[in-house]
Design goal:
The chain has nine helices and 14 strands. By secondary structure, the chain is of the alpha/beta class. It has one domain: Leucine-rich repeat, LRR (right-handed beta-alpha superhelix) (Alpha-Beta Horseshoe). It has an eight-stranded parallel beta sheet with strand order 3-5-7-8-9-10-13-14. Strands 1-2 form a two-stranded parallel sheet. α6 links the parallel β9 and β10. α7 packs parallel to α9. The radius of gyration is 23 Å and the shape is globular. 30% of the residues are buried. About 6% of the residues have low confidence.
Length: 320
């Protein structure tokens, strides 16, 4: 009896972990409810085949390398039932093509959690994709899937642009958790993303009892938790606006979402934001920089943070 036939006759098998892809003819993939991490040795065609076969696996963790062995066969519009997709991109040259190709093949209508870690890079013959190009890739996948995403984590250049991210947010009004991990050079805090997430002037109550807002002004109306991480190196003699991100627009957003908002019919159109954190990790920080860090946030920002905490919001700001 061949090795794979042993598994084919295991009616109660529910979990499988493989160091590399093995073609099991007749293997009962549909019986699996969990699958070990798909590592960097798997070809793109094998990844797509497995995602399609494992119809009852709800979470997939996929490590993407730059170059895959074997032929590259494409399955357009592969409908998968996964509720959670987690991609870990290595620093291998070429992983951007694999990431974009994989997402362009998939439709995931049941997806509630999407995690994309690492940084995508072009191949030896291609430049790294621009943030604008990544915006289109992510937008197309979410739009095509029509999923009710609740949790989104983006890292590195998959954070995209301040122009493109709100277009993605408009497609996922069910989102409750957002995590962005970006380099210090990505000025996402200053370039207007949080201004787009801030309720407009019409939406700001004129008194504590006035929480009526027009329905069409809110992006991510169910957002409850925001986590921001900025990483990078700095050898500057002082920390200033060119090194540390400004907290002003983020605090504007948090303040505008510190209470539940209702429309004129009494329906909830914006849930309360419960938690927001900003972690700034600066490597090779000199003693001069460390002394300057003690002045961040500013006194005015600290006063605004105290008011948010008093209102019941969890706010954490740290520089490492």
């Amino acid at each position: 009896m061949e090795f794979f036939q042993l598994f084919a006759r295991a009616p109660k098998i529910r979990h499988l972990a493989l160091p590399s892809y093995i073609s099991f003819v007749g293997f009962p993939w549909s019986k699996l409810t969990s699958l070990g991490r798909i590592d960097e040795s798997w070809s793109l065609s094998h990844i797509l085949s497995t995602l399609g076969e494992c119809r009852n696996v709800r979470r997939f963790d996929i490590a993407l390398a730059g170059t895959y062995p074997g032929p590259l066969s494409i399955m357009n519009d592969l409908n998968i039932r996964a509720q959670s997709l987690s991609f870990l991109r290595s620093w291998s040259t070429g992983n951007a093509t694999m990431m974009s190709t994989l997402l362009s093949c998939l439709i995931a209508p049941s997806l509630v959690e999407l995690v994309i870690e690492g940084t995508h890079r072009g191949s030896e013959l291609e430049a790294d994709p621009t943030r604008e190009e990544w915006d289109m890739t992510l937008n197309s996948f979410v739009s095509r899937s029509r999923c009710l995403l609740q949790s989104l984590t983006l890292e590195g250049n998959s954070v995209g642009t301040v122009v493109g991210l709100p277009d993605v947010f408009a497609l996922i009004p069910t989102l409750t958790y957002l995590k962005l991990v970006a380099p210090l050079t990505h000025r996402i805090m200053e370039e207007g993303l949080f201004r787009r997430l801030t309720l407009s002037s019409q939406a700001v109550p004129s008194s504590a009892d006035d929480t009526l807002v027009p329905r069409d002004v809110v992006l991510l109306p169910k957002l409850q938790r925001v986590e921001l991480v900025f990483t990078g190196k700095s050898n500057k003699a002082a920390l200033n606006k060119d090194v540390l991100p400004s907290l002003s627009q983020m605090l504007d957003m948090a303040e505008s979402r510190s209470v539940m908002r209702l429309d004129h019919g009494g329906r909830v159109i914006s849930h309360r934001l419960y938690s927001i954190s900003v972690s700034i990790e600066i490597h090779t920080l000199s003693w001069i920089l460390r002394r300057t860090v003690s002045n961040f946030p500013s006194a005015a920002e600290k006063a605004r943070i105290r008011k948010l905490v008093e209102s019941g919001m969890e706010v954490q700001i740290e520089v490492q």
